[in-house]
Amino acid sequence: MNTAYALKNVHLIHGDLKRNPQKNMTILVNEQGLIQDIGRDHELHIPSHYTTIDLSGKYVMPGLINAHVHLFARW
């Protein structure tokens, strides 16, 4: 991954039954594709080289993976 992203205005799902989704959150994803930080827009410093993507109204659940893959299948 060569580009870093700021995913703005997402509804953040924590995956915890005790917590409701948080609205209008920002997720910073670094050049390695790893989550760097999560917070409200006014709480985060978004580096100038990050590509901003407005995901208004979309839901994001960090850490959710595609667990149904066949890693050792032959193509």
Give an account of the 3D structure.
The protein is mostly beta strands and 75 residues long. The chain has no helices and five strands. β2 and β3 form a beta hairpin. It is flat, with a radius of gyration of 14 Å. The two termini are 24 Å apart. The relative contact order is 0.33.
Sheet/helix structural class: mainly beta
Shape: flat
The mean pLDDT is 87
| Rg | 14 Å
Distance between the termini: 24 Å
Total beta strand runs: 5
Order of helices and strands: EEEEE
- Taken as a percent bin, the fraction of beta residues is 35-45%
Assembly level: single chain
Largest sheet: 5 strands, mixed
- Count of helical stretches: 0
Residue ranges: pLDDT <50 for 5 or more in a row? none
Topology overview:
Layout: E1 5-12, E2 22-29, E3 35-40, E4 51-54, E5 59-60
Parallel strand pairs: 1-4, 1-5
Antiparallel strand pairs: 1-2, 2-3
